[in-house]
């Protein structure tokens, strides 16, 4: 059922965290212990003396050999630290280090492809030719047939994702784990990952113009699961076929874990409205779109995904996956997601949306911060060289010699409207408040303390077993157009704790009279949502942080005519019965430049 060749579960009777850190090695024998820290690959593809095999000639002319890594801490994996990761949902360690390069291999710094190389044009899945699909499928067949320890082997390429996404590595110069999800490394890591994957495929099929397809679930023509992925080497048995065959259901790109029940036309409208939130009104500052600013070291950890990562990224992983599996493998879990060939077209669309967002924001540099720009990842390239690629290397697609065939952006025009006329809504909300029906706070605290903070939900946080409505003060009222352009008003849901590593979703509504009357993203009252995907991070792991959700609401407050108000009413609405698995610390308003 799963592809667990590497991951035989050990006995369960000791401290997993110690195990993960390689501190209980002697407990094991029989092929487990020797794969914990300092994993030494035995194959010829991975030893320090290898030149190349199968992937063509190693043309490292001109590539600089990197000096010894300095011990200043940075958001770069320490290749010698590869260790087990952990899924606490089913209590099972995960091992991805088979794909980790031997740290003794020579490393070359990334170099841009030659400007005379052809530009690879990534096309939408609904416009692919039969020839292209056949060629692309052949590439998967080849990758799946390569020796198990070949870096271009399909499962080893999939493990590359597991390495960076479940915290298999420590950061260079620190024992903090490196995570490329739920923070500002999300877009750059995945861009680099699929960049190399694309070039490897091109090499394997002898086509240096080969370009990955993208799955544009953000436009109506792209909202179906692409049929060709059911074929031959594209197939993955671990999908939710009730969505895909024979119904050809329109994707619910903000999937709650349960069916939306919407007809196709309504689902399309909901999806387009969702895209408007995530690309336009909710993403007016880089941090809102890209994710939180993680810094090196334990103190620098953060857990705050950007808009697109939460929805549709996380939710489409969940919509495709087989939810009958313990960790929602394949697409629904970080450690297995890229074992589904549709992952790459999904991520190609995510990558395209980054470039679209950037274009809408005048092409400006997202963050002028060396911690981000110098963050680096290691990949084996199409010639089997070990390449260190930094975030600063992947910021300009044209230098990477690929582009996206243009499609429409219908979601630019889908600015939502209030479900209830704002003046009427405010009247009702005030009345509910007077009748003590609004603040279901512990102890019934009637008013928020000053200082822009809502009442804190107490040390244990507040479980979301049912919708929770709170009144949140706004530190600043009546802001000028210039203020609003400079500083985005941000609704912050902080101290989000997912109890076990499992799917969780809650929506956030502003000034909603009745959550049942809000038509999801099609209503202006909808501010966004939090979505948790299985991460493979140990519960109780000191590296596990509480998450923060930041939602830009400047435009929403204009449309709800709430800009002059000194507070707003916020409702947190658990979805798909998942509220019992999450607690929230509180809600407040901040301003973000
Ligand atoms: Cu690293 Cu879509 O996941």
UniProtKB/TrEMBL annotation:
What PROSITE patterns does its record include?
A: HEMOCYANIN_2, TYROSINASE_2
Q: Where is the Tyrosinase copper-binding domain?
A: 340-351
Pfam families membership: PPO1_DWL, PPO1_KFDV, Tyrosinase
Which keywords has UniProt assigned to this entry? Copper, Disulfide bond, Metal-binding, Oxidoreductase, Thioether bond
Q: What InterPro entries does UniProt report for this protein, alphabetically?
A: Di-copper_centre_dom_sf, Hemocyanin/hexamerin, Polyphenol_oxidase_C, Polyphenol_oxidase_cen, Tyrosinase/Hemocyanin, Tyrosinase_Cu-bd
Q: Does the keyword Metal-binding apply?
A: yes
Positions of the UniProt region annotated as Disordered: 441-460
Extract the GO molecular function terms from the UniProt entry: catechol oxidase activity; metal ion binding
- Keyword Oxidoreductase applies: yes
Q: Which Gene3D superfamilies match?
A: Di-copper center containing domain from catechol oxidase
Cofactor(s) named in the record = Cu(2+)
Stated family: Belongs to the tyrosinase family.
| Protein's name according to its UniProt entry | Tyrosinase copper-binding domain-containing protein
